[in-house]
């Protein structure tokens, strides 16, 4: 009996059956006896002095158990930074409930705890806030103001540079300058946030149910903030209805349910409504870039100056300055760049705080950099693809180190053949014929055009992850990991890797994740790291279990170990296809602590596996879009869309494709439809799904995916690179380019999202300029 | 708001005699009073469709209906699709076509599609996309949802 490979197979997911039957267990489905429900009273004012909170009427309402304001949280730490204390940014942290000042509409000011969710909401509505309104700061690109006495709203400057930038501009054949804006949008998962806090006095354990993304990291910093030992805190990750970077970060509401569970001695449940979500969960993306490139006569980049204004919103949240730092470190993308200077103004405004959203800093910088490459092409009269080709880092320059940093690591592109992927993609798309067809249509008056945008992604941030693989005495396999699932198919991927190494059926493997009571450490699920880090750790642990099983079986079967293999959960002789075999249950029984057969071996058919990596890996790809624009309405129709991506090695191509297509739809939202906008008083205007427009099946085109495995990562034994962010990464970039092409208006698109109103205005402005 | 009303909901063939405030939504009654938590709430203002159920044959958004309006009605939720361990063709097709990732919107899409196929078992592609564009999914980009529903519809005709 031969083993057929499981890695690389598009097998169905092990997660799906309970989910299609309505048997999932999301945080809203979790209840405990005697639980209270929490409702947050939020600031209706963008910026003001909080003079008083009158909760007398609410306190008198039947079913109301407690109402807290900032004064009740004296001495409790504001929401801290995930990577540890940061003195410089500490003054800009968000208090759990506002104290003297409110800084955005939606900021938690009071918390109501009541017997049921309806009562809590009734009571919250009677709480009145006395706020003296102050002028809000709503633009990060205007002069900074005062955040608090002694602290400017420019919390810090993010800078990175290398090479002689002055010299690059001094000897430039041409200098191209652009002023570009990326709008404020975010992940907006279909499940809103939620949390249930519970104190288990019997075990002296404080529990957070509804944890997501980084349960272990969150346990660490809940412990730090509450001054409790980590072993007395447990996070439990249920089903999570989408993550996208924003869900699972530690928010004020998480701390409130925990504190209330301790103080009120009852479980406390909080489920956010959609309006709250759109004004209180992390926003992302909003940046304005003033970018200049120095180029030589052939269009080679000599230097880039990247000054940008990062609109952080009202507070610095758990990530600190990560998005702005990555904006500095990752902007150059796939191109050679001799000199570079980035200067990021990290500024606070009176809007919902911002943090990471799927492909953070890449969605923004891909738009900015690819717009710049287009502008260089226009200036030099070269085809846009030619300018890109002349600047692409070649495969023989790999690994390619750039003296920049991202996520605390030096940027080293591990492997890749960017030009090779471009050639393959153009061939797959039928680029030449397609462009000829578009030219003919344009000659007939149609506004159609196509463009290419290139990108480099990053994934698999280290430094380390550990996994435990256990085979019990029934032969059942459990993988216990501190990784997390946000719906991406994590369990299936991990099961496939374990199955491949161990020789068992992937569908029978149980993958336990997101539980701090089952494993001590874990990286969670962010920065497309789960497949790389947890996947490789799984392979290592499974290989150890396999070795142990074969060692034990060799003795039981009186066979040489090098003649044994594990196939479909049974140890078999490779030299005797019809010979004797024993199943893993028998091997596991022979290894229980009391078994004499165990001899001197460690008890249990189980092992821990740790994977360490010095560097993250950099997958890469490109997107090709062909669009048609309606000049009268400003509507953009995407006629064809190809995403090419080199993933190194795909564990499950069907799931990779799912990640890419799903990511694209989100990117399309940020490119055309989705925007958190505010009026002049800082009132948010996008607080329902009627105002914040997520693409539906009608707006989302069919996607062609070209998945290649040309450049396996040398950074990990499996050679894999992450899949999570490729689909979204360059959508804004490619649509902007294609719209310019369709209208024959160079440099038209300077701002995302390209809503119909904004596009119409841009067309009219462009016509005004060119007819003058 | 404390005046409660006695109502009867029959959910997936099971009778529930419950006492609810007039303002209680059907979604909350299904989930909290009757314990069928497969029906999800994504927006509570009738846009996302995660809470879609079938009430006396009509697909409705249970967040926009009061429980008292469904008094005496027969309601089908996602938990009622499978027959024992045998999945409904839509459920099979969602798995086979990778039409779900996080699975939060899935119950709403399944009930939306089930209702639509019952009304018109031979939807054209354009009709299918028209119907499916009434719910939101944030993970899949819809392509596989459309494929899955088309495949189940074809199979149900066979």
TrEMBL record, chain A:
Molecular function via GO: iron ion binding; oxidoreductase activity
Keyword tRNA-binding among record annotations: no
Keywords linked to the UniProt accession: Molybdenum, Oxidoreductase
Alphabetical list of InterPro entries matching this protein: Ald_Oxase/Xan_DH_a/b, Ald_Oxase/Xan_DH_a/b_sf, Ald_Oxase/xanthine_DH-like, AldOxase/xan_DH_MoCoBD1, AldOxase/xan_DH_MoCoBD2, AldOxase/xan_DH_Mopterin-bd_sf
Domain (Aldehyde oxidase/xanthine dehydrogenase a/b hammerhead) ranges: 21-135
Chain ranges passing through the membrane: none
Pfam families linked to this entry: Ald_Xan_dh_C (PF01315), MoCoBD_1 (PF02738), MoCoBD_2 (PF20256)
Classification via SUPFAM superfamilies: CO dehydrogenase molybdoprotein N-domain-like, Molybdenum cofactor-binding domain
Superkingdom of origin: Bacteria
PANTHER family for the chain: ALDEHYDE OXIDASE 1-RELATED, XANTHINE DEHYDROGENASE
Protein name per its UniProtKB record: Xanthine dehydrogenase family protein molybdopterin-binding subunit
Species this protein is from: Ancylobacter mangrovi
Lineage: Bacteria, Pseudomonadati, Pseudomonadota, Alphaproteobacteria, Hyphomicrobiales
Automatic annotation (TrEMBL), chain B:
MF-aspect GO terms: 2 iron, 2 sulfur cluster binding; metal ion binding; oxidoreductase activity
Keyword Metal-binding attributed: yes
Record carries keyword RNA-binding: no
Domain 2Fe-2S ferredoxin-type: 5-81
Keywords: 2Fe-2S, Iron, Iron-sulfur, Metal-binding, Oxidoreductase
Family annotation (PROSITE patterns): 2FE2S_FER_1 (PS00197), 2FE2S_FER_2 (PS51085)
Recorded superkingdom: Bacteria
InterPro entries, A to Z: 2Fe-2S-bd, 2Fe-2S-bd_dom_sf, 2Fe-2S_ferredoxin-like_sf, 2Fe-2S_ferredoxin-type, 2Fe2S_fd_BS, Beta-grasp_dom_sf, Diverse_Oxidoreductases
Protein name: (2Fe-2S)-binding protein
Taxonomic source organism: Ancylobacter mangrovi
Lineage: Bacteria, Pseudomonadati, Pseudomonadota, Alphaproteobacteria, Hyphomicrobiales
């Amino acid at each position: 009996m031969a083993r057929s490979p499981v890695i690389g197979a598009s097998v169905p997911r092990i997660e799906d059956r309970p989910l299609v039957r309505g048997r999932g267990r999301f945080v809203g489905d979790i209840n405990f006896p005697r639980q209270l429900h929490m409702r947050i009273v939020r600031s209706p004012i963008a910026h003001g002095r909080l003079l008083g909170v009158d909760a007398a009427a609410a306190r008198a309402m039947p079913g109301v158990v407690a109402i807290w304001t900032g004064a009740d949280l004296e001495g409790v730490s504001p929401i801290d930074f995930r990577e540890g204390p940061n003195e410089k940014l500490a003054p800009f942290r968000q208090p759990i409930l506002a104290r003297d000042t409110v800084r955005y509409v939606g900021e938690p000011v009071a918390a109501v705890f009541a017997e049921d969710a309806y009562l809590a909401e009734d009571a919250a509505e009677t709480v009145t806030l006395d706020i003296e309104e102050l002028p809000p700061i709503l633009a990060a690109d205007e002069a900074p103001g005062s955040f608090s006495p002694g602290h400017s709203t420019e919390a810090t400057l993010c800078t990175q540079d290398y090479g002689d930038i002055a010299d690059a501009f001094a000897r430039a054949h041409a200098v191209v300058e652009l002023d570009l804006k990326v709008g404020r949008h975010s992940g907006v998962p279909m499940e809103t946030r939620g949390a249930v806090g519970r104190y288990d006095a019997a075990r002296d354990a404080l529990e957070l149910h509804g944890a997501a993304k980084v349960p272990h990291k969150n346990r660490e910093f809940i412990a730090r903030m509450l001054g409790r030992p980590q072993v007395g805190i447990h996070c439990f990750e249920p089903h999570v209805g989408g993550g996208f970077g924003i869900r699972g970060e530690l928010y004020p509401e998480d701390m409130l349910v925990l504190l209330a569970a301790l103080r009120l001695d009852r479980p406390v449940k909080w489920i956010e409504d959609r309006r709250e979500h759109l004004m209180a969960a992390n926003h992302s993306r909003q940046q304005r870039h003033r970018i200049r490139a120095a180029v030589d006569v052939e269009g080679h980049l000599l230097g880039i100056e990247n000054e940008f204004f990062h609109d952080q919103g009202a507070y610095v949240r758990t990530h600190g300055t990560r998005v702005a730092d990555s904006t500095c470190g990752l902007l150059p993308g796939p191109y050679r760049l001799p000199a570079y200077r980035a200067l990021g103004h990290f500024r606070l405004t009176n809007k919902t705080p911002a943090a990471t959203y799927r492909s953070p800093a890449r969605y923004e910088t891909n738009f900015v950099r690819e717009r710049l490459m287009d502008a260089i092409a226009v200036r030099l009269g070269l085809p846009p693809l030619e300018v890109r080709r002349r600047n692409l880092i070649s495969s023989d320059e790999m690994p390619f180190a750039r003296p920049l940093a991202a996520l605390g690591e030096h940027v080293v592109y591990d492997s890749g053949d960017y030009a090779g992927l471009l050639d393959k993609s153009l061939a797959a798309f039928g680029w030449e014929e397609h462009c000829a067809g578009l030219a003919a249509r344009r000659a007939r008056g149609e506004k159609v055009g196509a463009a290419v945008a290139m990108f480099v992604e990053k994934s698999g941030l280290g430094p380390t992850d550990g996994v435990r693989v256990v085979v019990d005495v029934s032969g059942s396999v459990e993988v216990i990991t501190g990784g997390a699932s946000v719906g991406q198919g994590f369990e299936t991927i991990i099961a496939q890797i374990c199955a491949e190494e161990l020789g068992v059926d992937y569908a029978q493997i149980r993958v336990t994740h997101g539980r701090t009571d089952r494993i001590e450490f874990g990286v969670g699920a962010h920065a497309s790291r789960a497949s790389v880090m947890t996947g490789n750790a799984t392979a290592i642990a499974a290989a150890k279990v396999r070795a142990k099983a074969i060692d034990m079986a060799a003795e039981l079967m009186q066979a040489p170990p090098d003649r044994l293999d594990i196939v479909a959960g049974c140890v078999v002789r490779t030299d005797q296809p019809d010979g004797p075999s024993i199943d893993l249950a028998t091997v596991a029984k022979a290894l229980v602590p009391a078994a004499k057969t165990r001899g001197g071996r460690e008890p249990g058919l189980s092992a821990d596996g740790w994977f360490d990596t010095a560097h993250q890996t950099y997958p890469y790809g490109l997107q090709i879009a062909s669009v048609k624009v309606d000049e009268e309405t400003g509507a953009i129709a995407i006629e064809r869309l190809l995403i090419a991506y080199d993933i190194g090695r795909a564990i499950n191509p069907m799931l990779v494709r799912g990640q890419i297509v799903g990511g694209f739809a989100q990117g399309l939202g940020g490119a055309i439809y989705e925007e958190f906008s505010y009026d002049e008083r800082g009132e948010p205007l996008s607080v329902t799904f009627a105002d914040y427009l997520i693409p539906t099946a009608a707006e989302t085109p069919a996607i062609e995916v070209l998945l290649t495995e040309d450049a396996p990562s040398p950074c990990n034994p499996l050679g894999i690179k992450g899949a999570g962010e490729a689909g979204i990464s360059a959508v804004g970039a490619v649509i902007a380019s294609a719209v310019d092409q369709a209208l024959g208006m160079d440099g038209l698109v300077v701002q995302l999202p390209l809503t119909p109103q904004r596009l119409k205005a841009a067309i009219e402005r462009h016509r005004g300029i060119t007819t003058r | 708001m404390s005046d409660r009303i006695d109502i009867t909901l029959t959910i997936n063939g099971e009778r529930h005699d419950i006492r609810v405030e007039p303002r209680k939504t059907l979604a909350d009654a299904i989930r909290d009073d009757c314990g069928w938590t497969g029906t999800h709430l994504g927006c509570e203002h009738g846009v996302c469709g995660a809470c879609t159920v079938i009430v006396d044959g009509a697909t409705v958004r249970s967040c926009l209906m009061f429980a008292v309006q469904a008094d005496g009605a027969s309601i089908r939720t996602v938990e009622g699709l499978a027959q024992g361990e045998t999945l409904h063709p839509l459920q099979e097709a969602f798995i086979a076509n990778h039409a779900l990732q996080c699975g939060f919107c899935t119950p709403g899409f399944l009930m939306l599609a089930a209702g639509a196929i019952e009304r018109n078992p031979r939807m054209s592609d354009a009709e299918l996309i028209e119907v499916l564009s009434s719910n939101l999914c944030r993970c899949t980009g819809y392509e596989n949802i459309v494929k899955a529903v088309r495949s189940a519809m074809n199979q149900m005709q066979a």
